[in-house]
Amino acid sequence: MNDGRSIALAEGLFEYGEQASKREEMRAEFVKLREIARKTPSFSLYFDDPSIPFEDKKKLLERILPSFDKAFATWCLIALRKRKLGSIEEIADRYDELYEKASGKKRGIVYSAHRLGEEEIRELERRLGKEEKGEVSLDARVDPSLIGGYRIYVGGKLIDMSVRGRLERIEKTLLAKEGGA
Predict the structure, then answer these.
(1) Is the pLDDT of residue 131 over 50?
(2) Is 169 found in the same domain as 130?
(3) Cβ contacts of residue 71 below 8 Å, gap of 6+?
(4) Which of 49, 54, 71, 90 has its CA 20 to 30 A from that of 116?
(5) Residue-wise over 1-21: b if at least 16 C-beta within 10 A, else e?
(6) Same domain, 97 and 109
(7) What is the predicted pLDDT for the residue at 180?
(8) 74 phi and psi angles, rounded to 5 deg
């Protein structure tokens, strides 16, 4: 749940990043921490669990922190004190929103039936950048339910260039013509 404290934590770190010219570095630190949280499914559960003493959580976090920027590590300790470290995904998402708004960059996800190569991804980013009037960065994911083509989420909208999407649009058109004839 993205509550006021999560938003305030993200905004506070973003402001620091802006003032210290470390916006990119802080974003990269979020990527590292997210990766740890994703590789460890119990990460959020552990840091959200009120039955685990604060000092135990702090000791675990301090074993992780030496690989992070000093300011980001301090921020992590603040997030821990505010009992929000378990909400790292939501906080990082809010940071990304602020980053994209400030930089004019948009982040999206492209789903395809098969693994896309780097050139294909860059070409889609280039084409979408023209449509979106700004830089677009895509994360590629495989969706075996797609027959072919792409399904892209960027800038809060869906761009459905999948075979399934095209077939559904054809079906709607045919049904509309049948109903009107």
Answers:
(1) yes
(2) yes
(3) 16, 20, 22, 26
(4) 90
(5) eeeeebeebbeebbebbeeee
(6) no
(7) 60
(8) -65, -45
140 strand-pairing partners:
110
One domain for residues 141 and 70: no
- Which of 15-24, 48-57, 85-94, 101-110 is least confident? 101-110
Identify whether the C-beta of residue 159 lies closer than 8 Å to the C-beta of residue 152. yes
Say if residue 104 is exposed, middle or buried (CB neighbours under 10 Å; 0-12, 13-18, 19+). Answer: exposed
CB 67 within 8 A of CB 100: no
Please give the Cα distance from 163 to 57 (Å, whole number): 48
Q: By residue range, what is the domain housing residue 158? A: 105-180
3-state secondary structure of 152: strand
Question: What CATH number is associated with residue 56?
Answer: 1.10.520
